[in-house]
Amino acid sequence: MLLYEQDGPVVTLTLNAPERRNPITDGETIDAIVAALDRLNRDMTVRVAILTGAGSAFSSGGDVKKMAAPDGPAYMPAVATRSWYLEGIQRIPVAFQQLEVPIIAAVNGPAIGAGNDLACMCDIRIAARSARFAESFVKVGLIPGDGGAWLLPRVVGQSRAREMAFTGDIVDAEQALACGLVSQVVDDGDLLPAARRLADRIAVNPPHAVRMTKRLMNEAQGQPLATVLQMSAAFQAIAHTTRDHLEAATAFAEKRKPVFEGR
User: Fold this and answer.
1) Apex 197 CA angle, 58 and 20, nearest 5
2) In this structure, is the dihedral angle defined by the CA atoms of residues 73, 78, 82 and 84, taken in order, positive or negative?
3) DSSP state letters, 24-38
4) What is the C-alpha to C-alpha distance for residues 54 and 18, in angstroms, rounded to an integer?
5) What does the mean pLDDT of the chain come to?
6) Residue whose C-alpha is closest to residue 30's, from 125, 127, 118, 119
7) Residues 6+ apart with CB under 8 A from 216
8) What residues pair up with 23 in beta bridges, in sequence order?
């Protein structure tokens, strides 16, 4: 369902249902993702995370067959379906919004529907050349029920997001790079090494400063400048008191490489 593997300061999360192309709408997977993100937040030894999929797909998103089953949302009362979303898949974007550890999506194959939105929940996306993306809810008569209407426009802009959502068309890796959906496209065999190289570039920095920078950037979305400046002043006051800031300033004056301890 979800593998959690730590190597030094970097954790790799792997969606692990390759035979079903890694859907994320069943309760067990939702619980595992939410629990893993909470674990990342609480573990100060973790500085960066990578999210990828086992097998040939990143994530197929929703399990359409289960949705259309007699006990699925297609046959539920509307009030029950509302709860099914609020208490189900919508817990994932909420957990990502609270995550302070930077997370990189290593998109190894198709990221479809909620799988595309899952990639958008991550801070940075790197695609293998075989990766494909689609905001494909309209193809099955649905809307983005997992927050995609909020997430996708913030990544690719309103015009491109609406084109993807209204058509449901597949976007290949190079098209994804051109519209800013991903920041890198690499050969399939180099995907995880490339993600790890980027993770290591982040992990060398003071972890408290990185976490607070991410929190500030998350909270700044939709806030007026005056509010963001107040938050920035408060976070900066904290950052100035860390030993890592003092170490960075001292190392700069002494013309040496700083050693950060996360304090």
Assistant:
1) 10
2) negative
3) --SHHHHHHHHHHHH
4) 5
5) 95
6) 118
7) 228, 231, 232, 235
8) 61
Provide DSSP, 191-227. Answer: HHHHHHHHHHHHHTS-HHHHHHHHHHHHHHTT--HHH
**3-state class (DSSP) for residue 174:** helix
Alpha-carbon distance of 100 to 96, in angstroms, equals 8
CB-count exposure of residue 109 (10 Å: 0-12, 13-18, 19+): buried
List residues bridging with 11 in a β-sheet: 6, 49
Confidence of residue 73 (pLDDT cuts 50, 70, 90): confident
Q: Which amino acid appears at position 229 of this protein?
A: L
CA dihedral 157, 162, 167, 171 (to 10 degrees): 10
The 3-state secondary structure of 58-90 reads CECECCHHHHCCCCCHHHCCHHHHHHHHHCCCC
Task: Return all residues near 144 (Cβ < 8 A) that are at least 6 apart.
Answer: 113, 114, 117, 135, 137, 152, 165
Does the pLDDT at position 67 exceed 80? no
SS3 of 103, please? strand
Residues linked to residue 133 through DSSP beta bridges, in sequence order: 111, 171
For residue 70, pLDDT beyond 90: no
Q: What is the pTM of this model?
A: 0.94
Cα(121)–Cα(200) distance, rounded to whole angstroms? Answer: 20
Question: pLDDT above 70 covers what percent of the chain?
Answer: 100
- What would the mean pLDDT of 82-91 be, rounded to a whole number? 93
